[in-house]
Design brief:
Layout (H helix, E strand, L loop, with lengths): L4 E3 L12 E2 L46 H8 L3 E11 L5 E12 L5 E4 L1 H4 L2 E7 L5 E10 L4 E6 L22 E6 L7 E15 L5 E8 L11 E3 L5 E9 L9 E5 H14 L5 E2 L2 E6 L1 H7 L4 E7 L4 H5 L6 E5 L2 E5 L3 E5 L2 E2 L3 H9 L6 E8 L2 E8 L1 E2 L3
Parallel strand pairs: 1-13
Antiparallel strand pairs: 2-10, 3-4, 3-6, 4-5, 5-8, 6-7, 7-8, 9-10, 9-12, 10-11, 11-14, 12-13, 13-14, 15-24, 16-17, 17-20, 18-19, 20-21, 20-22, 22-23
Length: 388
């Protein structure tokens, strides 16, 4: 069994997987580079208990790109295969053991390995296989379903721990060359190459929040690649391979990776405290672009489509949309609050609103500037902790 999520034209959630959201329209906003609650499902800088350095620092020594061979030689000793055992119930209620397979990579000399949360979800035991075939027991330090990231502590000798450095995912551009390394179908040390096909995609995490700013690539990614690194031409991790979109169930050249800046932040928090807390507003949202605002009779900004009961947004009195209107084939929410600024900084899209929430920790108070019934208002909101 493997742990790479496959998306079809009518995506269904596989066991322990995540779906790609076709659009990042609405968010139940949260942190750590992820998540929002979208119209149907969808969502930072969170305080770190102690400073932890993971994955080294991106090297600026040379901008000369490495060949695929060079990237592999630089990093392959840091890429591992992750085998997971878990328990489930049979059709007759009897417990039965299940095996799952994914990929991961070493991020420090202390034995911490990053992989996907959906790879280790429900694990009763974990083993980590290194490049030379040696296998060692691993322990899940913690995981974050909102970003689909987990950290494993592997009990391996220091001589086998070859950390792979993180690169800056915010510096990635469409067309950049990339390499994926992992264990598709259990074929360890498989290397594939391609380019960055698109940026700022949205994936749906295992807990139905959105992972924004994801990287789309045409490098071949298949079942078992989950948790492995997507590397730039300097051999730095710019993403963690997590999902594919496919009609056939195999690689159709549309893969998605969680951005490295999100991964690094989440890994630091997990290593420091074993958990991650995300700031949470509790709304669904939709962007109102300037080009259609006047036709809708509303302000440009981020429309509140839904306010979830009992959330910080509900307690603050935010109002969701009461109707909708279609212009040029696109449906927009109407009749609710339209947020134009957070803490005095303009927001014009769902992604910008989410990023502003991501920059806060649970308990922080933000000030929303919004337009309600044609009048500009300001509203303080104390952010909560996103439900897991």
């Amino acid at each position: 069994m493997d742990e790479m999520t496959t998306l079809t034209t009518s995506p269904k959630r596989p066991r322990r997987g995540a779906r790609v959201a076709a659009i990042a329209a609405a968010v139940a906003l949260g942190a750590g580079g992820a998540a929002a609650v979208m119209s149907a499902v969808d969502s930072g800088g969170t305080t770190i208990v102690r400073q932890v350095t993971v994955g080294g620092t991106a090297s600026n020594a040379s901008s000369t790109p490495l060949s695929v061979n060079g990237i592999n030689k630089k990093t392959y000793k840091g890429v591992v295969e992750v085998s997971v055992s878990s328990q489930s119930s049979s059709d007759f209620g009897a417990p039965q053991s299940q095996q799952a397979l994914g990929s991961g990579f070493v991020i420090d000399r202390q034995g911490h390995v990053v992989t996907n949360q959906h790879v280790v979800d429900g694990a009763t035991s974990v083993s980590v296989r290194f490049w030379n075939g040696a296998t060692y027991k691993g322990t899940v330090v913690g995981s974050d379903p909102s970003t689909d990231i987990a950290v494993i502590d592997v009990d391996a000798p220091a001589s086998l721990l070859s950390p792979v450095s993180f690169g800056d995912s915010s510096a990635v551009e469409v067309g950049d060359g990339v390499v994926a390394i992992g264990s598709p179908f259990g074929l360890e040390e498989t290397v594939t190459s391609g380019i960055v096909s698109a940026l700022h995609r949205s994936m749906t995490a295992p807990n139905d929040f959105a992972i924004n700013d994801s990287i789309q690539t045409d490098a071949a990614i298949n079942h078992g690649n989950s948790g492995g690194p997507l590397l730039n031409t300097r051999g730095e991790v710019i993403g963690v391979n997590a999902q594919i979109q496919s009609d056939s169930g195999g690689s159709d050249g549309v893969g998605f990776a969680i951005p490295s800046n999100t991964v690094k932040s989440i890994a630091q928090q997990i290593i420091a405290s074993g958990k991650v807390e995300h700031a949470y507003l509790g709304v669904g949202v939709g962007s109102i672009p300037e080009s259609v605002a006047s036709q809708l009779g509303v302000s440009a900004g981020v429309a509140i489509t839904e306010v979830r009961p009992g959330t910080p947004a509900a307690k603050a009195g935010l109002r969701g949309a009461s109707g909708e209107r279609t212009i040029d084939g696109q449906t927009y929410p109407t009749g609710g609050d339209v947020v134009t600024k957070i803490d005095g900084k303009a927001v014009s899209s769902s992604a910008e609103l989410q990023s502003a929430i991501d920059a806060h920790a649970p308990g922080d108070t933000i000030t929303l500037t919004l337009v309600r019934d044609g009048e500009v208002q300001t509203l303080p909101v104390q952010l909560g902790t996103r439900p897991s």
